[in-house]
C-alpha cells in the first residue's frame, strides 16, 4: 500500500509509522488520519508484527492540525457537512472528530504501541499519543494541549485519556492554560515514561519494542493490552476478576503456556507459535458481549 503523508515499515517484527510532512512539522490532515488508520489495520492483520513505534520525520513529531485554512480550519463547510441544522444529527459520522477516530483506532490496536516523540507535538500531536502504551521523548520534544488558546476544546478522546494518565489536577492545568511545555515537565507530570538524548530516541524505542517482540507470547500481549486499557473504566475490581479468570483458563490450556513453562525450565528462549489472526480465545472481544459475567 502506498502512502503520501506517512511512512510504514516492518523490520524485526516491529512496525514503524512515521508521520511524513517534515516541511510542515508533520501537521495533521484528513489524509494523514486516513493513512494512519490504514497503517494500524495493516499492523493488526500482520502476524509478523509484534509491536509498533510511532514517530515523526524531521525535527517535529506533529505540530497539530494543519491551519492553512485560516480561521475556518475547525469549521464545517457546507461542501463537507451539507447545510448544517441548528442542532446537528450527532449520529451522523460526518460530525465525528477526526482525532477521536484515530484515538479510538489506536485504543483498539491488537499490538502494543510505543510513541517516540522526537520534537514539537501540540494539539492532536499531543492527544494522539495518549492511547499509545508507552511514550518516550527526546530532550528536544515539546508538548501542548493548546485547544483553549485556539477557541476550541480538546479532542481525540483526550478528556478520557489524559486524566487517567496524569491525574485530574495536572490534566486540567495543561488543558486550561493551553501552554506549551518541555519534555522535562512531561516526564514530571507522568505524560511520558522517560526522556532521552535526541539521538538515542529511536534506538531506545526499538529496544523496548524488541524486548516485547522477542520474548513474549503475542497472544498474551494482545490480551493484556486490552485488559489493562479497558479496566481503566471498570467500576469494580470484580470486572477485572471476571475477565482475568477467562484469560487464565483460555491461555493456560494453550500451547504458549506449555512453551513458556518448558522453555523456562530448559533455560532457553521461548518459541511461541500462536497467531493473533487465528488463535485469539473465543471470548475475545468480551466487551461486545451484552453480559460477560
Walkthrough of the structure:
- The model has no long low-confidence stretch (mean pLDDT 92).
- The relative contact order is 0.11.
- The chain is 40% helix and 14% strand.
- With 293 residues, the protein is α/β, with parallel strands linked by helices.
- It has 2 domains: 6-212, 2-enoyl-CoA Hydratase, Chain A, domain 1 (Alpha-Beta Complex); 216-288, Lyase 2-enoyl-coa Hydratase, Chain  A, domain 2.
Supply database-style keywords.
293 residues, alpha/beta, 2-enoyl-CoA Hydratase, Chain A, domain 1, Lyase 2-enoyl-coa Hydratase, Chain  A, domain 2, three-stranded mixed sheet, 12 helices
List the helices and strands and how they pair.
Blueprint lengths: L5 E6 L2 E6 L10 H16 L5 E6 L21 H4 L16 H10 L5 E5 L2 E3 L1 H4 L6 E5 L3 E3 L13 H9 L1 H10 L2 E3 H6 L5 E3 L4 H15 L2 H13 L6 H16 L2 H11 L10 H4 L14
Parallel strand pairs: 2-3, 3-4, 4-6, 5-7, 6-9
Antiparallel strand pairs: 1-2, 7-8
Helix pairs in contact: 1-3, 5-6, 9-10
